[in-house]
Amino acid sequence: MTAPTPPFRDPHLPFAKRVDDLMSRLTLDEKTAFLHQFAPAVERLGIAAFRTGQEALHGVAWMGPATVFPQAVGLGATWNEDLVHRVGEAVSKEARAMRARDERVGLNVWSPTVNLLRHPLWGRNEEGYSEDPKLTSAIATAYTRGLRGDHPVYWRTAPVLKHWLAHNNETARDTSSSSVRPRVLHEYDLRAFRETVEAGAVAGVMPAYNLVNGRPNHLSPHLGRHLRTWTEEDLLVCSDAGAPSNLVDSEHYFDTHEEATAAALRAGVDSFTDHGTNPSKIVARVRGALEQGLLTEADVDAAVRRQLSVRFRLGEFDPAHDPYVDVRDFDTPEHRALAREAAEQAVVLLKNDGLLPSAPDARVAVVGLLADECKLDWYSGTLIHRSTPLEGLYERFGADRVSFAEGVDRVRLRTSDGTFLHVLPSDDAPAEGLGTEAALDPALLAGRTDLPPLTTDAAGTELALVDWGEGVLTLRAPDGRYLSVAEDGFVRASADQPGGWVVQETFRLEPHGDGHLLRHTGTGRLVQVAADGVKVAAADGDDPDGEVFGLVVAERGEEAVSRAAAEADLVVVVAGNDPHINGRETEDRTTLRLPAHQERLLRAARAANPATVLALVSAYPYAVDVEALPAVLWTAHGGQAAGTALARVLAGDVSPAGRLPQTWYADDADLPALLDYDVIGGRQTYLYFEGTPLFPFGHGLSYTSFGYADLTAEVGEEAVSVSFTVTNTGEVAADEVAQLYVRAESPSVPRPRRALLAHRRLPLAPGASARVSFDVPLSALAFWDVAQGRWRLEPGAYALLVGASSEDVRLSTTVTVDGESAAPRPVRERGLDAADFDEQSGTEIVDRTRTTGDAVTPVAGGTGELVYRACDFGSGTTGVTVSVAGEGTVELALDGGPWTAALSPAAPTAGPYDYVEVDGAFTAGGVHDLRVGLRGSLRLAHVGFTG
C-alpha cells in the first residue's frame, strides 16, 4: 500500500500550511542544523541539502563562466529600470541554467547591494547604485523583480538585499559604529531598503559587519521593528560571512558565543554564515544556548520557518510545478546583446567641447593603463567574452587606424651583486598533467607552485611596472604574467591578473640607501634573492633585510604615450582603477585623485595632442583637472562588452545618456570624514552639499540637445500630478533622462537643497517630443519629525524642479500643500529621548541596552552638546531627571543662556547599561530651545521634567 503524500508535499495547499506540516516532522536537532548556511539534507523526509547565498551582483559570480554585466554602480548610471529589470532576468536565468549542471550554484542570491553611496572613498562603491535613496530603490526594485521572475507563486531566484544598515566604510568595518540620528535613519538609510522590500520581490536581507549606534547590525532591533513590517512575506535574514563570531572575537559585545548566537537569532538572524562549509561550531553554539536557557525551541522554529518559506517559493518541493525548473538560458545571443546594451547605457559624457563624436575616418591613439584591459571585480563571474577599449576601437575603426601605447614603465631590477631579476618563459615549465596549450592558459596560472620561481642572470627580464597609487605597484613579465607570491613564498610570474581575497600580485618599492627594498603587500614581507630562487622572507623572527634593488628604467610610460598621441587625430586616454587594488572590499580609498602614474600619462598625451579625451573606467568618482581637456567621459567597469560599448559611444554610433548616480567632488577637502554618517548635519551628498561639485548628481551630456516645456502641477488629495514635455531639438537620436526634484521653500527644520522625486529615461528621435507625467505621493514630501517620532507632511510651498540634472534645472513651479503644522515638543508630559535631538556637536549615538534603544555620549569621553528646538515646558517645571550611565556631568540651559543645571551620578555606574536616575532643580516655563551639555564618559538616555 502506497504511503499517503504528506501535506508538505501537496502543491495545492498554501505554503504556510505546508511549512507548518514540515516543521512538525522535523526534530530539534534537524532544525538546529538548518541554521547554518549549509543546511544538511534530511534523508528520512527526502529533503535535499540547501545553501543560502549565491553572489549575483552583476552576473552569476564565483561559479565559473557567466555573462558579466556592468558593475552595479554602472547599472545605477543607466537610470533605466527597464534595462536593469532585463539584466536581473538574464542573471537569474543563468543561475537556473548553471544550477542544472552544478548543484553548488544557489538560488538564494545575495544581491543587490542597496547601501547608499554616501562617501565616494568607500572601497565598495562599485557595489551600490547611487547616493540617492529614491534612485537606489528604483534600480534595486527593478533588479530584484528581474531576479524573482514574474510567476505569481514561484520565484526564479530569491534575492537578499545587502548590507543592513548604514554601511559605508571598510576601515575597521567590523568594529566601527555608524552614528545615525533618527532623521537620517528614516529619511536616508532605511528608505532604500524599505521601498525595495515594499515592492514585493525581496526574499530577505543581510546585516552588515559594522555597528549602528553602538550595536552590531546582526542584533539590529530594526529587523523586527521595521523590516518585517514592510511585507507580509517571510523575510530571510542571512548573516554576513564570519559576522556571528565577530560578536565575540572582534567586537567583544558578548563574553560567549552562546550568548552572541542566541542574541542574533532572537534579533532576527535566520541563517548563520560562519566557518565556511563546516556547520559544527554554529550547531554547537545553538545547542549550548538552548541548554543554558538563552534560547527556546520557538526561537529556532521562527528562523527555520522563514528559511523554509523561501525554499518553498523557489519550487524546491514542487519540481513538477516549478515554471523555472527547465530554464537553460545561458550565454545566449540575447544575453550578449543585453550586456552590450547595458554597457552602452552606462557611459556618462561628463564634458564635451565638440571633440566627440569622432570623425569616422579618424586615426585614433588609445593609451593608458586600462586601454587594453577588461577588468573584473571581486563579485564578477569568469568572462566568456571580452572586449577591451583597444579591441573595441579595432573593431569599430579598423586595426590600421588605431595605435596603442599602454604607458607602463619598463624596468629591470638589479640586485646587489649586479645581476638582474629574470623570468623564465611560461612554456619552459608546463604544469604536470597539462598539455602545452593548457599550461599557457592564463586562467590556469594563479596560485600555481609548479612554475619556476624568478631567478637572476646577467641580462635580466624587462618588467612592466605600474604604480596604482599610494605606492602600490604591479610587475608584469613580457608575456603578460604578473609577478605573484604563492603559499610557499616564492615569487613567480604566475597570475593573469591581480586578484583574490588577499591580492598576491602587488608590491611596494621602499627607498633604502642607493636603491629600493621590494615589499610584497600580500604578506607584508621583503623580497629576497636566495640560491633556490626569489622569495619573500620567512614569517619567523624579525623582518630580515631584503634584497636592495636598483631600478633601471628602460622607458617611462609617458614616452610611449607621447609618440602614439602625436601621430593621431584623436587621443583616448583610458584611466581609472583596478578593482582589486586601492579601493575594494576590505580597503577604502584615501583620495579622490588619480594615481600619479596616470596623471603623468594624461599630461603627456595632452601635451602631445590637444585633441585628447579622457575616458575614466572606474568603480568610483575621481577629482580630475578637466579644464584643459576638451572631452571627458566615465563608465564603471562595464563587463564583457565594455570596450565595444566605449568605442561605439566615441564613434557616435550611440549617443551617451548615462547620468551620474552620485556627486563627483572637486577636492578631498569637500568630503566629510569617512565615519561621519550624519548626512544632514554634515551637509553630505547632493541632498545637502553646499559647495560646488566637479560634476553634480544626475549630470550627463549628449550628442544632441533637449528642450523642456509646458510644466503643469496639480495637488490632489494623495498625490501631486506633474507633467511636462521633452523634445529632442538636435539632429541625433538619443535618450534623455528627465529628472524631477523637490525643495521645501520654508522648512521648519533643515531639508534637502533638492531631492529626487522621479525620473524617466526617454528615447527620442530628432525632433520628437514626449509628454512625461509623474504622480508623486504627498508622503514623498514628508520628513521624520523627531519631536513627534513619526513622519510629518509640513504645510507650505514646495518648489518642483524639472531638468537634466540636480543642478541643470530647465523648468520650475511652486505648489502649496496642506499638512500638519509643527507643534512644540511636549517635554513636560513626555520628556526627551536623548537621540531625538535637532542639532549636535561632539557627540555620538550609542546603544542604550544590548537589545534596544539609543543613548548619546560625548565623543571619546570629551564634551558635547545637544539642541532640542521648541520644547514646551507648559505652565512651568521646577525639576529635571536624567537617566544616565557611566561617569560625567549633564548640563542644561535654555535658548542661548548660561548653564542653569548640572547633574552627575554620585559614583560611576557598574557598566555602560546600568542606568541611574539623577534629579536636580530646573526652572522653565513656556516654549524654549533646550541645550544639553555632556561631559565625560557617560551615556544620556532620557531627560524628564517635573514640578
Automatic annotation (TrEMBL):
Query: Molecular function (GO) terms listed?
Result: hydrolase activity
- All copies of the CBM6 domain together span 830-946
SUPFAM superfamilies on file: (Trans)glycosidases (SSF51445), Actin-crosslinking proteins (SSF50405), Beta-D-glucan exohydrolase, C-terminal domain (SSF52279), Galactose-binding domain-like (SSF49785)
- Source superkingdom: Bacteria
CDD domains (UniProt xref): beta-trefoil_FSCN_BglX-like (cd23343), CBM6_xylanase-like (cd04084)
What PROSITE patterns does this protein's entry cite?
A: CBM6
SMART domains referenced in this protein's UniProt entry, alphabetically: CBD_IV, Fn3_like
Keywords, comma-separated and alphabetical: Hydrolase, Signal
So what family is this one in?
Answer: Belongs to the glycosyl hydrolase 3 family.
Protein name listed in UniProt = Glycoside hydrolase family 3 C-terminal domain-containing protein
